[in-house]
Write a structure and sequence with these properties.
Elements lengths: L1 H82 L1
Keywords: Membrane, Transmembrane, Transmembrane helix
Length: 84
């Protein structure tokens, strides 16, 4: 009888250990999934920033170039034409 009780306690501990291990593994895998999602979103965010910032910088540069072109070329031409 004591042997059956001892085997029952041991098997119960083994089952509980397996359940605990499974629960821990599940929590860890959800943690890895969450960190992977956050990491992917972060990489995507950095990629968007790295993709958008050069575009904005290029648009800014082109805007300055066009502004200087208008200021230096078109305005004197317009004045010359309007005087003639």
């Amino acid at each position: 009888m004591a042997l059956y009780i001892a085997l029952g306690i041991v098997s119960n501990d083994v089952i509980n250990h397996q359940i605990d291990s499974g629960a821990r593994a599940t929590v860890l895998s959800f943690g890895h999934l969450a960190s992977g999602i956050v990491h992917t979103a972060g990489v995507a965010g950095v990629g968007v920033l790295l993709g958008v910032l050069p575009l904005q910088a290029a648009l800014l540069v082109w805007g300055i170039v066009i502004f200087i072109f208008l200021l230096l070329v078109i305005t004197p031409m317009h004045r010359a034409i309007s005087r003639a």
